[in-house]
């Protein structure tokens, strides 16, 4: 009886291992690897650029997750490789909260690349696949920018020309009417970003403080087209 149960368990384990090996073979195929890296790069990049409420970021994590899963099941990757990659991802997130003038971004990107290459069975081949995925990703991100440029950190870089009924056509509308108005930050203000004031999306700037998204803000000063805001709880009465 015990021998029969042992043989049955061993047979089930062999079937499970066979299933994992087949899935691993698909996930580690060169074409699949390139596609997963492309999905990962595009997803993470678009999330950081356009703040899609996590949709792009989740897609990117799934792509990278399947990449590491395939090589982990094949025996090439270990937890150390995943830890390096995770550290890079954390550094990129920190860049959004603690601006480091690009230092954290560079360190994070280096960890991401290092983790991807270290996890592969053949790092040299993985480097080629990563290069192909990155080249395609740049094209995809460029096309996405065309349609999503009104969102996220790029919004404040775009010159918006508006038609004024009393002053005719102008690209620099008077914003003095916003003084004292209250609103909500749409993107991180570090110190510049985008806020929703009334029903209007406005490019704003703080006096140096960092404000997280969805925080209540109020306009404290208007200097031409420069709209200065503060987080409401930080205002001294």
UniProtKB/TrEMBL annotation:
Keyword Nucleus attributed: no
Pfam family, one: NfeD
Main location: membrane
Residues covered by the NfeD integral membrane domain: 34-143
Domain NfeD-like C-terminal: 178-230
UniProt GO cellular component terms: plasma membrane
Compartment annotation: Membrane
Residue ranges of the TM segments: 24-42, 49-69, 127-148
Keywords, comma-separated and alphabetical: Membrane, Transmembrane, Transmembrane helix
Topological category with respect to the lipid bilayer: Multi-pass membrane protein
The keyword DNA repair belongs to this UniProt entry's keyword annotation: no
Coiled-coil annotated spans: none
Descriptive protein name: Uncharacterized protein
Gene source species: Paenibacillus athensensis
Lineage, broadest ranks: Bacteria, Bacillati, Bacillota, Bacilli, Bacillales
